[in-house]
Amino acid sequence: MSLELRGVRQSYGDVEVLHGVDLTGRPGEVLAVVGANGAGKSTLIRVLAGAQRMTSGELRIDGERVDLRSPHDAHARGIRTVYQELSIVGGLSVTENLLMGAFPRRRGGLIDWPEAHRRAQELLDSAGFGAIDPRVLAGRLSVARQQMVEIAKALAGEVRVLVLDEPSAVLAGSDLDALFALIRRLRERGVLVVYVSHRLAEVMELADSIVVIKDGLIIAATEPARTSETELIGLMAGRRLEQIYPARRETTAETRLAVSRLSRKGEFEDVSFELRAGEIVGLFGLVGSGRSELARCVFGAEPATGGSGAYRSPAEAIAAGLALVTEDRKRSGLVLGMTVLDNIALATMRANRRGPLIDTAGRKRRVGEMIDRLGIQPGGCATMPVAALSGGNQQKAVLAKWLLAGPRVLILDEPTRGVDMATRVDIYRMVDDLARRGLAVLLISSDLTEVLGATDRVLVMREGRLAGDLRSEATTEDEVLAYAIGQAA
Amino acid sequence: MTGHIARIRMTRDVTVTAAFVSLIVLLVAVAALTSDTFLTQTNLTNLLKQMVTTGLLAFGMLVVILTGGIDLSVGSVVAFSGILTAGLVSGLPIPVAMAVGVLSGVGFGLINGVLVARFGLAAFVVTLASLTTIRGLAFVYSEVPIAPEDPAFFTLGSAMAGPIPVSTLIMLAVFVVGGVFLTRTPAGRSIVAIGGNAETVRLAGINVPRHVTLAYTISGACAGLAGVILASRVGIAQPSVGVAFELDAIAACVIGGASLAGGRGSARATFGGVLVLVLINNLLNLYGVQSFWQQVLKGLIIIAVILVQRTNRVRG
Ligand SMILES: Nc1ncnc2c1ncn2[C@@H]1O[C@H](COP(=O)(O)OP(=O)(O)OP(=O)(O)O)[C@@H](O)[C@H]1O
Ligand SMILES: [Mg+2]
Hints:
Chain A has two domains: 3-237, Rossmann fold; 255-485, 3-Layer(aba) Sandwich (Rossmann fold). By secondary structure, chain A is an alpha/beta fold. Chain A has 17 helices and 21 strands. The model of chain A has no long low-confidence stretch (mean pLDDT 91). The two termini of chain B are 17 Å apart. In chain B, a hairpin with a 2-residue loop joins strand 1 and strand 2. Chain B has helices at residues 2-34, 41-66, 74-88, 94-117, 123-141, 155-158, 166-184, 186-196, 198-203, 208-234, 245-255, 267-286, 291-315, and strands at residues 160-161, 164-165. Residues 1-11 of chain B have low confidence and may be disordered. Chain B has 13 helices and two strands, in the order ααααααββααααααα. Chain B has one domain: ABC transporter involved in vitamin B12 uptake, BtuC (Orthogonal Bundle). In chain B, helix 2 (41-66) runs antiparallel to helix 10 and helix 2 (41-66) packs across helix 11 (245-255). The chains are: A alpha/beta, B mainly alpha. At the A-B interface, helix 10, helix 11 and strand 17 of A face helix 1, helix 8 and helix 9 of B.
C-alpha cells in the first residue's frame, strides 16, 4: 500500500522536533531514511507506528486520510514497526514473545504449547531466522538474536508496511544477509519497507529511494544511482568529511594490559593478548564468538575460571585505569530514569567530592565540557532525562561517562552502534587522540571496515578462542572474516 | 532550544510542586473552615507530634524503595525498639536506653539488608519474615505493656521548642539531612541509580550490595528512632503497637511520586506525602468519622491523589 505524510509536525512538550515532514512511500519499495543523530528519524517512525500522535499534519494510506490513534490501530492496518530500542521481554520464551498473547488453545482453555512453539518456529523460518530455538528464554539470546526475534514478531499476520528503525545496528555477517534477503522478499510481495540506518553502504545496496532528514526536515530525496555515500554524509552533517579514519600513530613498547591464558567456562578459552600504550587494537568475531564476554571478564564484571590478567571486580579495574563501554546501553550503560548529568558522572562520583558531598559545581562543569566535546545533542542537555536523548546521543553519553574517568585502558564494545557517520568520525578522531596521549584501546566491533580502518592490529575470535592476530595495514576484510569463520589458509 | 527544554522541565516541576502545595493548603483551609477544633493549639501540637512516626518511617521507606526494594518490617521495629527502651530504663540511664533502642532498629535493618543484598533474597519475603519475627521478639521481651515511672522518659516525645515539639524538629532534621544525602552524596546518588539500573551501577565500579544494605539499615534506624519517640510520647510501650504502620509509610512515598520499581522519588515530595496523609487522618478524626470508614476513605483518597499525579506526569 502507499503511504503519504503531509506536513507532519511533532513536539515533545513545547519543543518541536519535526517541522513539517512530507514523505511518500510506494508498495514494493524500500524507502531509506537517513540523518544525523537526533535528526528526528525515530520520532517520525513513532508517528508512523501510531505510538505518537502528530501535533499537526496528515497521514494518507492509499490516498485516504487516516488518523492513527494507537499502535494497535497501525498494526491492524498492516503497519508493523521494529523500534530502535529492543522491546523483547527477557523473562519470557521466544515463543511467548513472538505470539504475545495470541496463543493457540486446547479444549478447556489451556495453552497448546507444542502448537505454539510450532507457530513460532514457522514465523522464524519464514523470516529466515530458523536457527533460533523458540523454546529458550529470550533474555538468554544475544542482542543480535533478540533483534531478529523482534523482526520476526513484526511479521505475524498481514504485513503491508514494515518500518525498521536501525535493525542492522546489532547484526553482522550471515544474520545481516538473512535480514537483507527478508527485506528483498517482502519487497517482491509488494510490502513497503521503511528502513532507517546509519550504515550507508547497506542503504546504497538495499534502497530504492533515499530521503535525508536533518533537524526535523526532509532536505533531500534521491536514489542510490543518483548519489554517493560521501554526498549523503555531507548532506546529513551539513559539512564535508575529508577522511574517515585518522592516520596511524607510533605505538610504544609499554604494556598496559596483559591477559594470559584467560578462560571463562562456556564462553571463551585460553585467550592471551597484550595492549600497549598508544595502541588501538580491534577485536572482531561473529556473534557468539565470546568477544563481549572476554571484555566483561577482563573488566571484572564476570569472574574468570582460569588464566590471569583479568580484574576481580569493576571497582578494581577502574582503580587500575580501565574503562568499559558496554555494547547494550539500555541494559548496562545507562540509568534511563536519571538525568544526563547523573549518568555521565556516575563512574566518577567518589573521586569528585568536597568533604562528604559531591562537588556539584565542578561536576556540572566537567560534564558540560564532555557534552560539548562529544557534541551530544541537544547541547546543554545535562538536566534532561537521558531517556529523552536520541539513540546515538545516548551512546555518546555512555562514552562521556568513561572518558570523564580519565582511563589508561579503554575497552569499547561496539561504540559506534547507532551513531551517525559524522559523529563516528569524531569518535575515531577522539580515540586516536587518546591513543596519541598514551591510552591503550581495545575496540570490539562487528563492522569490518571500522575494525580495520580505525585500528593498528586486529584480534580475531572464533568460538571462544583467539584465532588470529593481524596487522590492520597488512590484512584485508576477507582475511579477517576467513579467520572468524575458521577458513583461513 | 536548550534553554527552552530546561525551562519546560522547570515549569513542569513547578506545576507539580504547586499542585501539591495547593492540595495541602486546601486540606488545611477546609479543616480550618469546617472544624472549630482544627486550629486550636492542642490539635495543632497533636498533629505535629502525630506526624513524627509516619514521617520517620516514610523517609526510611523511601530510601529502600529507591533501590527497588520494600521494607515491611518497620511497624514491628517500632514496637520492639519502644518496648526494649522502656524495659531498659529501669537499669540504664535514659539516653543510653534510648540509644540501644535505636540501635536495635539499626541491627534489624542491617540483617534485612544483608539478606536482600548479599543473599539475593526478595525484599518482600525477607521483610515479611522479619515483620513477624520482630513482632514476636517484642512480645517475647514483654507480653505486657511497660510504663516507665521516671518522668524524664517522656521528655523526648513531649518536649516543646517554643510552639513546635522537639520530636517534630528531629523528624524534620532527618528529612533535611536525608534529602541532602540522597541528592548530594555519592552514596545517595548510588542508591537512586541502583533502583534505576543496578547493572549499570555495578559496572561503574560501585559496590551495589553495600549500598542496598545501607538503605535497609537507614530504614531500620528510622524505625528504631520512631519507636523510641513514640514510646516516650505515649508514656507507655506496647508490644502490639505499630501494626500496619508500614502501609502509611509506603503510601506517603507513593503519594510523593516515588516509584515502587525504584529509581524515582525524593525526600521533599515524600515529606509532602506525609503531610497529606497526616492531614487527612486528622480531618477524619475531627469530623468524628468512624474508624472503619476512615480506612475506606483514606484508601480512596490515596488512589485519587496518585491518579492526579499520574495524569500530570503523562501529560508532561
Ligand atoms: N521523549 C522525549 N522527550 C523530549 N525530547 C525527545 C524525546 N525523544 C526524543 N526527543 C528529542 O527529539 C529529537 C529527535 O530524536 P529522535 O530520537 O527522533 O532522533 P533520531 O533521528 O532517531 O536519532 P538517532 O540516530 O540518534 O536515533 C532529539 O533532539 C531528541 O533529543
Ligand atoms: Mg533513532
